[in-house]
């Protein structure tokens, strides 16, 4: 089987991108971008006035009062996290698993990255006791842990951490003197917003938490890179950090493209067409994710029910015997195997910090909407999107692949 990554099974240096939404660009945003493309001016490093004021309004509406002197923008969340990591210094702690792009940017700066186990209920937030133990062990070994990156609405696990668990993790991090970066890229993609309580760590500890939001999560197409960050409100922690991050962004030349900045500023004001599209997209991906989850668990895989985002994280460990018959013994081989059979990217769990030997995979719901622009647009308006021919065909293929593995596992199951 041809490999898609290092033959040596060495460290994963680059991870997959954010899960695509699989949908056409909102016409209103396309018109805003097209009008702005005629202008020749460049956007300032850190974002111009319109973009920063729109970001402040966005956070104000979410219970996080913010002034423009506490906000900055960059060409995607990775650039902002790189700048924050450089500005804060020290070693970095992340949950296991975590977003594929978190660890590589710390390693790029020569910082050590330590993974911390997550509780059984969710991903994205470290178990508080495991966090304290890891910090103390790292310090005992001469390390300098200073930064914890977490996500309440998580990539890759698609879970939403309960507020009480977030509070415990935030308290543990604060007790160990860590600065927190809360990646809130997926906070506006919660599948059941009226039944799911999402609380930002910045609401619990505003003087020690920086919030980063990649607008590709809900407001902009993934191909229009733009993200915003909100540094702590306190002068002691906010002023110096804001200045240092801007210095790093300036050195990198990390500016948001001017037309994208105009579209981002417009989207962040959340006019009705934008909020309607976000709500429709969330409903659609929630349905597709629930269907994919049913397929996976029916076949014998283990997966938490997806609560946010456009993805499903599944553990195919119970199907190991069937996969072994196909020459699949680790996450990289699982990635290759499923990518060929499903005709879509299926990044293995090793890309998210999980062990290579664990048979885990992230499946994107956007890939299950593949079709013409007209077919993908119909998904948003249809009362039964899962019954549309191109979506139904994709789900049937997914079900066929997983059912075959279940049947193979039953044949290979040793007699009792």
Automatic annotation (TrEMBL):
<dbReference type="InterPro" id="IPR015421">
    <property type="entry name" value="PyrdxlP-dep_Trfase_major"/>
</dbReference>
<dbReference type="InterPro" id="IPR015422">
    <property type="entry name" value="PyrdxlP-dep_Trfase_small"/>
</dbReference>
<keyword id="KW-0663">Pyridoxal phosphate</keyword>
<keyword id="KW-0808">Transferase</keyword>
<dbReference type="Pfam" id="PF00155">
    <property type="entry name" value="Aminotran_1_2"/>
</dbReference>
<dbReference type="InterPro" id="IPR015424">
    <property type="entry name" value="PyrdxlP-dep_Trfase"/>
</dbReference>
<comment type="similarity">
    <text>Belongs to the class-I pyridoxal-phosphate-dependent aminotransferase family.</text>
</comment>
<dbReference type="GO" id="GO:0008483">
    <property type="term" value="F:transaminase activity"/>
</dbReference>
<protein>
    <recommendedName>
        <fullName>Aminotransferase class I/classII large domain-containing protein</fullName>
    </recommendedName>
</protein>
<dbReference type="GO" id="GO:0006520">
    <property type="term" value="P:amino acid metabolic process"/>
</dbReference>
<keyword id="KW-0032">Aminotransferase</keyword>
<dbReference type="InterPro" id="IPR050596">
    <property type="entry name" value="AspAT/PAT-like"/>
</dbReference>
<dbReference type="GO" id="GO:0030170">
    <property type="term" value="F:pyridoxal phosphate binding"/>
</dbReference>
<dbReference type="InterPro" id="IPR004839">
    <property type="entry name" value="Aminotransferase_I/II_large"/>
</dbReference>
<feature type="domain" description="Aminotransferase class I/classII large">
    <location>
        <begin position="50"/>
        <end position="319"/>
    </location>
</feature>
